Each structure stands twice: as structure tokens, then as C-alpha cells.
Amino acid sequence: MARRHHKEPPGNSPPPGASGFTQPERAACRRPSVAPPAAATIPGMKDYVLGTSDHELERLALQQRVWGPTTARFLDRLELSPGARVLDVGCGPGFVVEMLRERVAPGGEVLGVDASPKWIEHLRARIRSQGWSEVRTLQADINTLELEGGYDVVFLRWVLSFLPERARVVRRLAELLVPGGRLAVMDYNHEGISVFPRSAGFEAVVRATRRLYAQSGGDTWVMGSIASLFRSAGLRPTVFEPVVIGGGPDSPAFRWADAFFPYHSQPMVEQGVLTAAERELFLREWEERKVDPDALFFSPIVVGAVGRKP
């Protein structure tokens, strides 16, 4: 097992819930361009509804800018040190892989696993351009994943909520940890997501989002059961950090929502979890709030939790 030392979060890190953005970073959080959705898979799911289109890649990049500071604080709690071995499950295009690599280099290893060939190729191109010797990739579905163990940390961000067999997956990932290793999860307790002034259209789209997850066996409230999932896998719950971000139309949080709901509400109609009339109402009310300087958006609760292997 890799040597660890206590690492305090950087002194200039923003407090939980704050945006942590400089003015140039706010300008960078523009709405992604629209492109037709493309079906793809993520670990444990066929036909991942969010797809791997260019729009989704841009949205994920924006999401990283918005939630990167929160993710960084959570990763600091893991106290990773050079030489550690980390598995990033459902790594997507690899935005968190880079953050993990910074913490285990030199001498460590990060393995990024994702079912999407497009995301894996995107990450491989990044590895080649940056010359990262510490990063490897594997295209694989988590349900058929066969790996040798020996990992200090297994990390999942916004993956577990999609999976229908969450308990089995957590048990399998726990087996890959060394004694004292940590399973680190960031995901939703989907309460609190809201916009003010209140919007019946937005509330309909939120309900549709939850149905979309549930149709494939997912659970948008997965972090409400994370302690029991850890314990059933023989892990001891340690870290538990809920975070909510929010702000007005010019805030990173609002732009994050703007990149998701207007675009992905159309596939929701096509999949029967939202009516066309509900979407029309949502789009009209959302545009009104985008130009209302007093409007406020609040994210769902995003929880960072860690289970330690004895």
C-alpha cells in the first residue's frame, strides 16, 4: 500500500457551495452548442441517454469547471500521495483522471475505465499530448470488468446513480481495494433542486429527469443509501460531505443547469417521461428566468462519501 501523508486543502479553496470562479472562468462557462444526441453506454447501462455527442462533451467540460472545486476538496480528503494506485470507474472523457494524476505522481498510477469508445479515445489523445506516464485506460463495462486488485482508491463521480445493480457493483469494487483502501463516491441526493421564481415547467422537467434514471433502474437519490451500500460491501463509512451550489442567471450553477435541461428535455419527451406541453412550458419559463436578475437556481445535493476497507 502506498505511503500516505495528511494533506490539508489549499488555503485559498472556496468554502463548500461557493462557485470558486474567477471572472475569466465565469466567461468560459458558456452554454454548449446544440448537436443531435447520440446513444452510447456507460458502465452498467446500455443506451446511455445523455450520449457522447459533441454537445455532451462540451457540457461535461462545463460541468467540470463548475464542480471542479468541489471535486478537488473531496479528493484532498483522500490524502493521496505519490505512488498511490487509483481506479476511476466511469471516467468519461477523463476530467477527474487529470486531477487524480496530479495527486499520485510521480510513481503512482491512475486507470480510467469507461464503456464509451469515444470517451476513452478522447482520454487517450489527452494522455499522448501531455505525455502522462502515470495514466492508463481501459474500455470496459463495469458489469463485466475483470481486474486484479491492489488499488488504494476506487473513485466514481456521477456513475452509481445510473446503475441498476448498485449493491453488487459496490461489493465488486470493494474487492479491488487493498486493506485500508477507500471507495470514494460523488453522486446525487436529488432533493433541493429548484429555481425561483418557482416554475411549474422546471418542476416537470426535474420529475422527468428522475423518471429517466429510474427507467433503466437508476436512482437519483442513491447517496441516501450510500452508508448501507458501503456496510454491505464490508466498508466502514468515513467521509460524508453534502454540497449545494446556486446562483443567478450569470452564475456557473445556473449555466450548468442551462446546458442540461433545455437540450436534454427533448429526449425526455421522446422517451415518454415528459409531455411536449410540459417542455414548452418549461422552455418559456426558463427563458424568462434567464433574463430575470433576481432569479435563482439551486442544484440538487451532491454528496461526497468514502468507505474504508478494514
Helices and strands in order, then pairings?
Layout (H helix, E strand, L loop, with lengths): L22 H6 L11 E3 L2 E4 L5 H24 L7 E5 L5 H10 L4 E6 L2 H14 L4 E5 L11 E7 L8 H10 L1 E13 L4 E3 L3 H16 L10 H7 L3 E8 L2 E2 L4 H19 L5 H15 L5 E3 L2 E8 L2
Parallel strand pairs: 3-4, 3-6, 4-5, 6-7
Antiparallel strand pairs: 1-2, 7-12, 8-11, 9-12, 10-11
Task: Characterise this structure.
The protein is of the alpha/beta class. The chain has a single domain, classed as Rossmann fold, CATH 3.40.50.150. 39% of the residues lie in helices and 22% in strands. The protein contains nine helices and twelve strands. It has a seven-stranded mixed β-sheet with strand order 5-4-3-6-7-12-9. Helix 6 (200-215) crosses helix 9. The longest helix has 24 residues, at 54-77. The two termini are 13 Å apart. Residues 1-49 have low confidence and may be disordered.
Task: Write a brief caption for the model.
The chain is α/β, with parallel strands linked by helices.
Q: Which characteristics define this entry?
A:
310 residues; alpha/beta; Rossmann fold; 7-stranded mixed sheet; 3-stranded antiparallel sheet; 39% helix; disordered N terminus
The overall number of domains is: 1
Strand line-up in the sheet with most strands: 5-4-3-6-7-12-9
The residue-averaged pLDDT reads 86
Q: What series of H and E elements makes up the topology?
A: HEEHEHEHEEHEEHHEEHHEE
Architecture in CATH? 3-Layer(aba) Sandwich
The beta-strand count equals 12
Structural class: alpha/beta
Question: Could you say which overall geometry the principal axes of the C-alpha atoms support?
Answer: globular
The level of helicity is 25-40%
The low-confidence runs, each spanning 5 or more residues with pLDDT under 50, are 1-49
CATH-defined topology: Rossmann fold
- Biggest β-sheet, characterized? 7 strands, mixed
Q: Which CATH top level class fits?
A: Alpha Beta
For CATH, the homologous superfamily is named as Vaccinia Virus protein VP39
- Tell me the strand percentage band: 15-25%
Write down the Rg.
19 Å
Distance between the termini: 13 Å
Helix count equals 9
